[in-house]
Each structure stands twice: as structure tokens, then as C-alpha cells.
Amino acid sequence: MSTTPNFELPDFYFFPPFFTIQPVLSTREKQLEQWRELILKYHTHHKIKTLVLHDCPLWKNTTIKRELDPEGIRVIMNDFVKSGNGEWEDSELRTRCRILWRRPEQLAEDIYDWAIANGYKNSVCTVYELHSGEDVNGTSFQGADEQLLRRALEILEGQGKCTMFRGQVSSEDGIKFF
């Protein structure tokens, strides 16, 4: 796999030692940082919300005939979750990881900046509009996991920047920005 549709893999992905967890601490920290960045960029680019450990194409590079062993995947994913970039959907088995394209706090800032820039102050929009509306094309929260989106909105609500209210169905839940 050298590229996937419109996604260019970084040069370090073709360096064979990248697929072996490095024993020297400073080298391993840099390696884990690169894995975090690659996983985030790949999943954000493809709008993939969940990384299924046994089904992730990043673990194997057929071009250089290298792949991560299960222990390497475990080390990388534990670091990924610990860094706040992901959350285990199945904390017991640890086979599915929700990708946090942006941390909830970052997403909250992005949403509020968007609301102010687009005239939604003292106005109402729905969770569906924030997730899939035409006005959010190209934003960091377009197509975001709804649970993550709601967490970001709860942060804004806690800061007094919005209030949320329930609609007839969850996609109609509304947000008023202040």
C-alpha cells in the first residue's frame, strides 16, 4: 500500500524500522508520535470514526514487506488512547478504538468559532446541521462522531457559550449559541 485514494503516505512509512517498536526511549517516543499522526491523518482523511485493530491497513506495508506484530499494535494503540486521540469502544477486549479526529476541547473551540463566524450567535441550529449540514462543509467537525460532537457541545454549554435542548428525535436536538 503506497497510497490510498487521495491519501499520500509519509516517507517514514517506508522505513522498515518503523514497523518494529524501538528499544531506545527517545527513538520510540518519536516513533509513537509518528504513528499517532499517521493514524489521525488517515482516519480523518477517510472520515473513518472507528479503528478496528484486526482490520487496519496501516499495520502492513506490502511495498517493503513489513508489518507490525500484535505486541507492536498494542503498544501503539495504548499510546494513542493515552495521548487522548482515541477511546476504546470495548475497554475489556480493546479491539475497537473510536478515533477522536480532534479532542473534544478542540472541537468545542472549532464549533464555537464556526457559529460566531457564520452568524449563529443568538440563533439556533440542530445537531444534524452541525454534523451534516451544508454550512459545515470543510470544517473539522463535518461528519464527526455524534457522541464526540455532543461532548464538545457539553463543554460549550458548561462554558455558557450555548444551551442544548431536545427535539422529537436526536437529530433534531437543538443548540442555541451565545
Automatic annotation (TrEMBL):
Keyword Protein transport: yes
Superkingdom of origin organism: Eukaryota
GO biological process: macroautophagy; protein transport
Keywords tagged on the record: Protein transport, Transport
Pfam family, one: ESCRT-II
Keyword Protein transport attached: yes
Family: Belongs to the VPS25 family.
Name of the protein in question: ESCRT-II complex subunit VPS25
Annotated organism of origin: Discostella pseudostelligera
Lineage, top ranks: Eukaryota, Sar, Stramenopiles, Ochrophyta, Bacillariophyta
